[in-house]
Amino acid sequence: MPKYVMLPPIDDDMRGWAAQMREELPDLDVVIVEDEADAARQLSDADAAYGWVPPEVLPSVERLRLLQNPYAGPFVGWYYPELAAHPVTVSNPRGIYSDHIAHHILMYMLALSRGLPYYMDAQAEGRWDRHARQHGYVDLSTATVLINGVGGIGAETARLCAAFGCRVVGVDPSPYGRFDGVLVPPSELDDRLHEADFVVTTVPHTPETEFMWNAQRFAAMKNSAYFINIGRGMTCKLDDLAAALEQGEIAGAGLDVFEIEPLPEGHPLWRIENVIITPHIAVADAANIPERRFALILENARRLVDGRDFINVVDKEKWY
Predict the structure, then answer these.
(1) Active-site residue 261, yes or no?
(2) Active-site residue among 65, 280, 302, 303?
(3) With 315 labelled, which of 75, 131, 132, 281 sits at a CA distance of 20 to 30 A?
(4) Phi-psi bin for 232: left (phi > 0), alpha (psi -120 to 50), beta?
(5) What domains lie within the chain, and their CATH numbers?
(6) 64 DSSP assignment
(7) Is the peptide bond before 70 cis (omega within 30 degrees of 0)?
(8) Which of 64, 55, 11, 61 is nearest to 33 (CA)?
(9) Of residues 34, 188, 261, 317, which has the active-site annotation?
């Protein structure tokens, strides 16, 4: 009987998932590991696991065929060279957040295109100011949106943008699913930045994407353009972004992720006009995410029992 290990930290969702897996897959031994000290022993004969296997434990994990990553963009160090070399297949939950995060991106775009931050400032001051907006109105039906990273989130964002009439340029070496727009490889990113009214970045943090958004790239954007980061904070150098905003190199930004989280008290981004900051909450309260996550876990568990290929497989060298 294959063994599936739920690794700590254990929460109520995971306990419920384990119970459902035992009910639906009686030929699968599902074990909850409450104590981290017991993880190595339970993993030694496990066929699958949900969670993280530290480098010091991996050498003793010989039977493991599936490692289910709880995160689409995990913490730095989740992937490491020994894991990449190990025969285990890693699967992640990409796709389960796509619609929610795309909606968050459109919230930024609509608000910034119509100058909402300026009117909110006027409202907070009790000031009736029909001319509060300091940057020109952006007509989405004629706007160009550059989406850096056309995975599930980028593809769904492109679909919504196309519905508004936007011209969409996607940057990705291997897009995920259908894409409504012009697709170019990452080598063309710098040549396309000057076209964009909105630059939306959804890429995960990898060695290739770390601090890819920097002073040089902000300088290449239009002065009237907006930058939106919904992917990972470590892809953008915050001080470079703040300087670009303060110097008028770009018109504004919508940010849900940051190089340092929480964003430090007193950081310039807190006070720069026309910047919308949300504290990494694009999917924080989405009620259906646990159900979507479990559906993926259960499907891969079924495939483990049946001996079929897994879904949502990760390239361990690339971290996604």
Answers:
(1) yes
(2) 280
(3) 281
(4) beta
(5) 3-94+288-306 (3.40.50.720), 98-277 (3.40.50.720)
(6) -
(7) no
(8) 11
(9) 261
Query: Percentages helix, strand, coil for the chain, rounded to the nearest 5?
Result: 35, 15, 50
pLDDT (tens digit per residue) in 163-174: 999 999 999 988
Asked about 232 being catalytic, the answer comes back as yes
What order of strands is seen across the sheet that includes strand 198-201? 182-184, 167-171, 144-148, 198-201, 226-229, 252-255, 275-277
Sheet with 48-50, strands from edge to edge, namely 29-32, 3-6, 48-50, 66-68, 89-91
Give the residues across from 227 on adjacent strands: 199, 253
Nearest to 101 by CA among 176, 157, 140: 157
Q: Classify 238 in phi/psi space as left (phi over 0), alpha (psi -120 to 50) or beta.
A: alpha
Residue with tokens 């900051």: 277
Tokens encoding 79: 């992937």
Burial track 129-160 (b if 16+ CB lie within 10 A, e otherwise): eeebbebeebebeebbbbbbbbbbbbbbbbbb
pTM (2 decimals)?
A: 0.92
Given 100, 135, 159, 232, the catalytic residue:
232
Whole-number pLDDT of residue 200: 98
DSSP letters for 144-191: EEEEE--SHHHHHHHHHHHHTT-EEEEE-SS--S---SEEE-GGGHHH
Picking from 267, 202, 274, the residue whose alpha carbon sits closest to that of residue 240 is 267
**Rounded mean pLDDT, 235-251:** 98
**Is 217 among the catalytic positions?**
no
Q: How far apart are CA 99 and CA 96, in angstroms?
A: 8
Backbone dihedral angles phi then psi of residue 25, each to the nearest 5 degrees: -130, 75
